[in-house]
Design brief:
With 595 residues, this protein is an alpha+beta fold. The protein has 19 helices and 28 strands. The chain binds zinc ion (2 copies).
Length: 595
Amino acid sequence: MSEQYEQSELYKLRHTAAHVLAQAVLVLYPQARLGIGPPIADGFYYDFDLGVDENGRAHSFHPDDLPQLEKRMRQIIAGSHSLNYQQVSEAEARQQFANQPYKLELIDELADKGEPISVYQHDSFVDLCRGPHVAHTGKIPADGLKLMSIAGAYWRGDEKRPQLQRIYGTAWPSKQELKEHLAMLEEARKRDHRQLGRELEIFILDEDIGPGLPLWLPNGNILREELEKLAHEMEDKASYQRVSTPHIAKDSLYLQSGHLPYYEDEMYPPMEREGGRYYLKPMNCPFHHKIYASKPRSYRDLPLRLSEYGMVYRYEQSGTLMGLLRVRAAQQNDAHIYCAEEQLEEEFMAVIDLYRYYFSLFGIEKYVMRLSKHSKAKLGIKYVDNEPMWLKAESLVREVMQKHAVPFVEAEDEAAFYGPKIDVQIWSAIGREFSLATNQLDFGVPPRFDLTFTNQRGEQETPWCIHRAPLGAHERFIGFLIEHYAGNFPVWLAPEQVRVIPITDEQNGYAEQVAAQLKASGVRVQAMLESDRMQAKIRAAQQMKVPYMLVVGEREAAAGTVSLRKRDGSRQNGLSLAAFAALVQEKIACRDGDL
Ligand SMILES: [Zn+2]
Ligand SMILES: [Zn+2]
């Protein structure tokens, strides 16, 4: 959540709505124990423990309970109760929350840390809280409020602690904004990449393979190959050299890179063989560093740009896995650019330009670049302990971005352990936010690998290293693209570009001929020769979101033409096959986003 949001009226409004929800729950379920209730990106939640029944089973909310809770919330809102802040002593807080064990635990912690304890009170309800809140409950628009869903949530996210019931709600300044938000959610549900990924036969997850380890189906693999082809073309143009590296390596490599022990929690446990400990690679970087170091380098070799669509394995927590968006095996559009300091500006900007080219190609209109910096307090813990180099690297990035008028924001304590980076957040066509690419400036690792080059004065110098992955990983990026396009991929990406549909079996021969000719000119095409009715074949092609359908009947067969039906419903009859082939080849060659 952005700092800007955390200071907004909307944030206060949602925070206050969470308090009102807790009060409503206590009115209807006086035995409820309260957990916490913060605002979140597009609403708020509150966690409750409703206790257990005589059989020891946890009481739980049911979706049918939500309307009644909403009604009670509206009554509280109508009371326009003012929210009053008060600092209290530890003893007062304990007394106030004597029946609320979870709150007592929070009070213990605040007291241990010596932090001030404060409460917010409105009407008869008091909550342990720092704020901020709106002035009174009447500021919450009664018709901009909705309770959305119920979920289980462990107290403090710890599965060894009690499971609480979380009620999610949303609140907006007006009824209209709530309506738009709900419409957006409905659209997002329709575009959900997990659903579409199955329907369009892009990927599957299988329990026997394991969580977070997707299997790419033939259609999905076409998407991957098209993206790789694009990346290869762009990287060839920019004089990258491709390399390939293994999926596992010995612990000594990761000790040298610093991934061990700092990154160990996110790595799969090691395999032992012949006295060696091997780890699945969580990143490609150290492998590329070894390739750099495999022979002496001079300033004439720089910039050296090594690229690889490299597979990486990270042990993400099972609770965070989500379709293709968070996985445990991912293939990254990775590269490392080794260069001298005077080459940094040009190299760094070339990467930023590459990002912008990709964004325009995919119709990504909204994106934000963020300069992620170190935190002074965490030098030597989370970050390489070299403050002067941090300041230098951060100001280098800042200056390059400013000089080229690239808008960006800055954030502390978000850097990589070896240097600052530009992180890019992108928004899909329906406004869903994804964090995608990074462009990192590394001063910390090249010295650990003794990377050097001979400069023009004949001295040994340490190169800088830029880590970049503009398309992120296939997994995440394709997950994004499915939702962004709602499965309606542009022609160049579409797994099946053309489907030929004969009107009757009589035209099967002609349909095959059309398909064969298009296939020979590099188009992904199939002819539907089943004896289904034509309408059923058209519906099947529409379900698979095939961009072009060619309907061929007696007339087309006789004239050597096709009738084109585009995915958007537009039609063109009596098109010569040559003219259609030229159209589709042009769309593919230019990677045109329009049909
Ligand atoms: Zn609060
Ligand atoms: Zn890297």
